[in-house]
Design a protein that fits this description.
The chain is built from six helices and five strands. The protein has 193 residues and is of the alpha/beta class. It has a three-stranded parallel beta sheet with strand order 4-3-5, with helices on both faces. The protein has a two-stranded antiparallel ribbon with strand order 1-2. Bound molecules: pyridoxal-5'-phosphate. Pyridoxal-5'-phosphate binds next to helix 4.
């Protein structure tokens, strides 16, 4: 009985916290992801979107997605390494590489996946990853998965970065990882310096 009560209390905690306005919850959007969206039946302005290009609702892209679903179905049914690579993935990678003037490209389904996959594997056990303390969570998770030594520097502070660089063995690889535009503060990485 005690156990049941404890379980019930635990279950009710999020409800209470939500009612008190201190628990994160998910707002349901019932429209396209435009500058204006519908939440709870009301039109509101959207300031949190990552869809900077607005292409998510472009008629041509919607049409292409519908055609792709008709041909390939709604999923890849496997990891890219095994059976999950489609011909249209390779076509897109080739076009993206050409667009940015590079030899090749690799697509991921989310930005989080990119940082998790790339940051964790670029450097070796004896190398270094230097990261800005305000880097996005995906970068933090990526460097946590890496075997390299990790050194944090103060946000956008080049003196702090320099000090951390001085601690590194000059003969090893040093990877400095920073957001381009920091997602919380909105400030820009000090690349010129
Ligand atoms: C700076 C930054 N990096 C990475 C991500 C992760 O991207 P995604 O939502 O595509 O996983 C986000 C947003 O969520 C972001 O703001």
């Amino acid at each position: 009985m005690k156990l049941l009560q404890a379980k019930l209390d635990k279950y009710q905690e999020p409800q209470k916290a939500k009612a008190a306005g201190i628990y994160p919850y998910f707002r349901e959007i019932s429209s396209e992801q435009d500058p204006e969206v519908i939440i709870n039946g009301r039109k509101v302005l959207m300031f949190g979107s990552n869809c900077y290009s607005g292409l998510v609702n472009h008629p041509k892209i919607k049409e292409a997605a519908i055609e792709a679903i008709k041909k390939y179905g709604t999923g890849c049914a496997g990891s890219p390494f095994l059976n999950g690579t489609l011909d249209i993935h390779k076509e897109l990678e080739a076009k993206l590489a050409e667009y940015v003037g590079k030899e090749d490209a690799m697509i991921y389904s989310t930005g989080f996946g990119v940082n998790l996959g790339v940051v964790s594997t670029l450097t070796g056990r004896e190398d270094y990853i230097l990261w800005d303390e305000q880097d996005h969570a995906s970068i933090i998770e990526g460097r946590r998965l890496s075997f390299s030594q990790s050194l944090k520097y103060k946000h956008n502070d080049m003196e702090s970065l320099e000090n951390q660089l001085k601690k590194c063995d000059p003969s090893k690889v040093k990877l400095i990882v920073t957001d381009g535009v920091f997602s919380m503060e909105g400030d820009v990485a000090n690349l010129p310096e």
